Each structure stands twice: as structure tokens, then as C-alpha cells.
């Protein structure tokens, strides 16, 4: 594929305007992007072009029927300026799993992997080295085919854009265990990184923010009794010394950080359980003092400790532990990601 | 508002290229569209401009988080070339109901109504007069604000585009009562005309089409035992001489055609019930010969008779009645829409 990947370089770079010491999350973009069109029944060869607006017909199905999916990844730079990805094939596989559920044609692996690594080589200088910073990578597919008929589009665009980014959350996180609204249905699209899953969370999250929380923890739509995920993160709970997370399902995203944290925890000798977690169990453990930690895990959020949770008009504070599982696990995973420690799992992927 | 509605006319018209005798549904567009931008915390004055592509940053939230909503309406032309809408304020109210749930700022009524009627006056020649044809109108709002952070956008575009259209379904419809996949969660966004609700239906609908059906009838996500809606239509069932449809809920769209059909049926002296319909009840009625009719109702589909339904590997045919409720109700509602009969309900709205 190398000889078919066309590259059109930007005439000037915006990099000098960027304050790398004060990066927000996902709000400034690098000089180039990868674009790959699906047309006439096939994915055409990808191109790298200057970062530029998209021009789409007002009847493009993305605007009407939410036919879009995405992935979130990060590129990390080590002290020798080597560039690393973390389990990129897992993102590729999940992109195609999402594609299938949203009736988007699956993408060839080489278009994704070679497009991504070539783009990162070109944008190497944009990868921040400050602690906690990284280059956030957003691969996404949108329906560009047209028509006011509720059916899959016949044309799509696969794009990779990159944003040098700081932390997703600043400080500890206050969450609300949701008792009215829901994120996903059994037999629905909750396990896919589909656009519509996110828009549906905004309003209930706004209501939670107005009450002083940062994020909602979603529960099952039938009884609101089982903890699912937090929209941008999977949720881990530590009761006594056991680390517990819910099983993945058709309602819950199969998080790459989630499964990596489980493997690292086992390697650390931490007792882990993957099983349904009831809200009652968490509240009882909080009251009994056996609920030691809760944290979220995701590519954007990395490992985000939860300071307190709200449930039915009560707030429950979590203890502030000196040597928490969250801090140990965050150090282990980021040390692997930034090439500061041995990678016994074979997760690191060198961009070259 | 009249003096603030800017109009930029198209230099040439595409109308001569259109074969009005062979219109498909929603695939060709008129010469103009209405565009209204939300920026700096307010909806700016709408403009009518030549129909043209939209230019959006690759990081616009519509591409990533499915933040979009829409409406479906039709304009009808009578024998004297008067132009009519059907209950347009109901569409406006529902648009804002959807907006609230998807965290999109609500739109002022006068921007919607005056924008719509002015656009229709300009596009009057595009409204087909052939039987079964109409000008399909698509008001929609998309998130144009940017950022790879899963939160509501700060900028939006409200657009109205129009497509002269023929029938949505050709002929009778075969449906599959879905037993694996789901459309909506309790506490979710099923009642909103949100983009993501449609993308999630495409794959299960494709599977149904491969088995020889045209459309899926969705059931509740918990037991798959209660009939909800058909994605582009609400569902009516006639058992003996009673016409039954499910209650609206947070999972089911509050269809304007649905509630109009209920009012017309009562006016016709037909016994109606609005209550949960179990799949078991429908299958038993089909076996007993008491299931006389099933039909879908929606703006695009109007009243679409269902010829048969599939359930758990069995197909059940519906009788072909000479004087069906579906045909009587379709005639009553389209006679009102096309100004061929008295409008005792006050639903017709003259565009002038």
C-alpha cells in the first residue's frame, strides 16, 4: 500500500502558535489529516492532506441519521523522541465491530495501520512531551452519501485527525449514579463507539453538572440497579482489597484501558472480579467503610479516581488512600505507554 | 421578523431536469434552503440561500457525537395551486422537544414558521401535483461547534431542505417483529427524532431485508414482548373491529400522523384503544382469524398497510379487505392534507 498512499503536505505549519504547556483536551488540531473515501462499493486508497474543512451535501446521511463511529487513541513520545502507540490493533478491531453494528462498510486493516503510522511520522513534532500530555488521535467514519430515506448511505469518509492534548479531567471526579435516564438498551448499540450514544448522554450529564457532579455513572435501563459505564470511561470499584468491574455486554463498551487494567491488576497480585455490580452493594460498602476506591478507565481519561458519588439525594465520599490501586495501576499503564518500563504484555507499538 | 429574513435567490433553477412523473423519495432537492446559525449563545436571523454544500471542520461535533435532530413534513398543492401544510406547529413543538433531550438550544417559533412558509413560497413550483406525490420537507439541526470532548457543541445549524417525493413504500409491506435487537431504552432518546435512533436500526433492518421483509417492528428491550414502533412509522393493529395502537412513551415517537389517525378513527365511529399490545396477543389473533389489519402511520409513509408479519420463523398473512380501516383512514387524512375535503379538526395550514 505504501506506493498508493498519496501525501499532500501543508504549505505552512500552525505549530508555532501552540502553547504546549497549557493544552486543553482535543481542541487544537495538527497540520494534516488522513482521508479515505468509500465509493462504488469499496474503500479507495487513503490520502494525507492538509487539515481542512469537509464539504458535504445538506442531505448527507450523517446530518440526519447519526451514521457515524469513532475511536480514541493516543501517541506518546519517550525521552529519546521515539513515538509509541498502545494496542492500536485493538482500536482497529473495535472500529470494525462498531462499523458492522452501524451498517458502515468495514475498513481494511492496512488502510488503518499504514495511514495512521504515516500520519504520525509526519506529525511527530506535534506529540507533546510534558507529563500527562499526549497526542490524542481521533479515527472516525461518517456517512457522506445522501438521501432523506432512513437507510444506510452508499458513500462514507474515514478520517484520522490528531489533537495535542492535556488531561481530560482536572482533579478528582464527582459522579452521579443515574436513576432516571439511560445510555443503552439491551440489543442496542451501547457497545459500539457510535455517535448517537454520546449525544443521548449530554442532557442527563448537564443536569448532573448543574447539581455539582462531573459525570454520570449509567445503570441498566430496566431497574437502574446495576452499574454499567460512565460514557467516556469504564468503572472499577474496590471493595476491601478486591477490584471489581462489570462484564462487557451489548450495552457496555469493551474498553481497551479497562482490559489492560484488569491484566495489570492480576500481574500486581490484586484480586479481581468481573461481574455485575449492584448499586445496593456499592452503597452498603460505602456505609460499612469497605468501599475503598472507585475509578474510571479509558483512553482519554486514563485512570481517573472518583472522589465521591451521589445516589438518591445522598453523597458518599471515598477515602483518600496513600497507596491506592488507582495510582499504582495508572503508573504501571502510563509507564508502559511512555516507554518508561518493561512491556511484558507486548502492548507497546513503535511508530517507525 | 420579516424584515430580517435575508433571501439570496439561485441564479438558475434545476427544476427543468426533474421528472415529476417518476419521483423517488427524498433524493432530489429544490433550488433553495433555509439556514439559521446558533452562535454566541443565540439563534441568529435565518437566511434563504441557494441549495449548496455545507462546510464544516472535521472536529465538528455532528461527526463524532451524533448531536442532531430532525423533522419530517410535507407540503401539498390543491387543484387551485394553493399550498398547504399539515399541523406544522406540531412539528415545531416536537423539534424543540427533541432539541431539549439532545442538549441542543431550542429554536424560536417565528424562525421556524416564517422561515418555512417563506421558503415554500419561493419553492412553490417544486410541489408536485401527481397523486401520492408531495414536497417532502426536512427541517434539521446539527452540531457545527468543534472539539474532541464528549460534551454539547457551542454552535449549531438549523436548516430546512425540500425534496419533491413519491411514495416512501411501494406496495404492501412485510414486517418482522424483532426478537433480538432493540431500538430504544427506558429513559433513553427513543421519543426524540434524534439521528442516532436511526443509525442503530440500519443493521437489524438489513438482516430483516435479507430474509425478505421490508421493515422491522421494534419491541421492548427487556422482554421483546410489547410492540413499540417501526422506526419510520407508528404501528396500528385491528383486532375484530377495534383499532389499537401503543401508548407513546420515552421509547416511542409521538407521531403526528398517529394521533391524527386516532382522531379520525373516533370521528368515523371506529372503536379505538391506546394500550400496550403484546406480541402474543397479535399472534393469537392472527391464528384465530380476528387480526383483520395492521398498518404503519407516519409523515413519510402516510398510511402503509402491512401484508404479513414474521415472528420467530413463522410468517402470518393478513387478509386483503375490500373496505379496510387503512384505506378509509388514508383517504380521510389525505383528503384533508390535499384540501379535497372539509377540515373539521383545523389541521390544514395555508401557506401564503
Structure description:
The structure is a homodimer of 352-residue chains. The first copy, chain A, has 352 residues and is α+β, with helices and mostly antiparallel strands. In chain A, 24% of the residues lie in helices and 28% in strands. The first copy, chain A, has 7 helices and 19 strands. In chain A, the strands form 2 sheets. In chain A, strands 1, 2, 3, 4, 6, 7, 8, 9, 10 and 19 form a 10-stranded mixed sheet that branches. In chain A, helix 5 crosses helix 7. At the A-B interface, strand 5, helix 1, strand 9, strand 10 and helix 4 of A face strand 5, helix 1, strand 9, strand 10 and helix 4 of B. Strand 5 of chain A pairs antiparallel with strand 5 of chain B, so a sheet runs across the interface.
Oligomer: homodimer
Q: Largest interface, by Cβ-Cβ below 8 angstroms: which chains and how many residues each? A: A-B, 73 and 71 residues
- Tell me about the biggest sheet of chain A? 10 strands, mixed
CATH topology of the largest domain in chain A: D-amino Acid Aminotransferase, Chain A, domain 2
- Give the beta-strand count of chain A: 19
| Mean of pLDDT of chain A | 96
Number of domains of chain A: 2
Strand content of chain A: 25-35%
Radius of gyration of chain A: 21 Å
Looking at this structure, what is the CATH superfamily of the largest domain in chain A?
D-amino Acid Aminotransferase, subunit A, domain 2
Count helical runs of chain A.
7
Fraction of residues of chain A in helices?
10-25%
Large-scale geometry of chain A: globular
Structural class of chain A: alpha+beta
CATH class of the largest domain in chain A: Alpha Beta
Which CATH architecture of the largest domain in chain A? Alpha-Beta Barrel
Helices and strands of chain A, in order, run as: EEEEEHEEEHHEEEHEEEHEHEEEHE
Low-confidence stretches of chain A: none
Span between termini of chain A = 16 Å
GO molecular function (chains A, B): L-isoleucine-2-oxoglutarate transaminase activity; L-leucine-2-oxoglutarate transaminase activity; L-valine-2-oxoglutarate transaminase activity
Function (chains A, B): Acts on leucine, isoleucine and valine.
Pfam families (chains A, B): Aminotran_4
Keywords (chains A, B): Amino-acid biosynthesis, Aminotransferase, Branched-chain amino acid biosynthesis, Pyridoxal phosphate, Transferase
Amino acid at each position: 500500500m505504501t506506493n498508493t498512499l498519496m501525501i499532500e503536505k501543508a504549505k505552512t505549519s500552525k505549530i508555532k502558535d501552540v502553547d504546549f504547556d497549557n493544552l486543553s483536551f482535543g481542541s487544537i488540531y495538527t497540520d494534516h489529516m488522513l482521508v479515505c473515501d468509500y465509493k462504488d462499493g469499496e474503500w479507495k486508497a487513503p490520502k494525507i492532506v492538509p487539515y481542512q474543512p469537509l464539504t458535504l451535501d445538506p442531505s448527507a446521511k450523517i446530518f440526519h441519521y447519526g451514521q457515524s463511529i469513532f475511536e480514541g487513541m493516543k501517541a506518546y513520545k519517550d525521552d529519546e523522541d521515539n513515538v509509541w502507540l498502545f494496542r492500536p490493533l485493538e482500536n482497529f478491531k473495535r472500529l470494525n465491530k462498531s462499523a458492522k453494528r452501524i451498517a458502515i462498510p468495514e475498513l481494511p486493516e492496512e488502510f488503518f495501520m499504514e495511514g495512521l503510522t504515516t500520519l504520525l511520522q509526519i506529525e511527530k513534532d506535534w506529540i507533546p512531551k510534558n507529563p500527562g500530555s499526549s497526542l490524542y488521535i481521533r479515527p472516525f467514519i461518517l456517512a457522506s452519501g445522501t438521501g432523506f430515506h432512513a437507510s444506510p448511505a452508499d458513500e462514507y469518509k474515514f478520517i484520522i485527525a490528531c489533537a495535542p492534548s492535556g488531561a481530560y479531567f482536572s482533579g478528582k471526579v464527582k459522579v452521579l449514579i443515574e436513576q432516571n435516564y439511560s445510555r443503552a438498551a439491551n440489543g442496542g448499540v451501547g457497545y459500539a463507539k457510535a455517535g448517537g450514544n454520546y449525544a443521548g448522554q449530554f442532557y442527563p450529564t448537564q443536569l448532573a453538572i448543574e447539581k455539582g457532579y462531573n459525570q454520570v455513572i449509567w445503570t441498566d435501563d430496566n431497574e437502574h440497579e446495576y452499574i454499567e459505564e460512565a460514557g467516556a470511561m469504564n468503572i472499577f470499584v474496590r471493595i476491601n482489597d478486591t477490584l471489581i468491574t462489570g462484564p462487557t455486554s451489548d450495552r457496555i463498551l469493551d474498553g481497551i484501558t479497562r482490559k489492560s487494567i484488569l491484566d495489570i491488576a492480576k500481574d500486581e497480585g490484586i484480586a479481581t472480579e468481573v461481574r455485575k455490580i449492584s448499586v445496593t452493594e456499592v452503597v452498603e460498602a460505602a456505609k460499612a467503610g469497605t468501599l475503598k476506591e472507585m475509578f474510571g478507565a479509558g483512553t482519554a481519561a486514563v485512570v481517573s479516581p472518583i472522589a465521591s458519588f451521589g445516589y438518591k439525594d445522598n453523597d458518599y465520599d471515598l477515602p483518600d488512600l496513600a497507596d491506592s490501586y488507582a495510582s499504582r495501576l495508572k503508573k504501571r499503564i502510563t509507564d508502559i505507554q511512555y516507554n518508561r518500563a518493561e512491556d511484558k504484555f507486548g502492548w507497546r507499538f513503535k511508530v517507525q
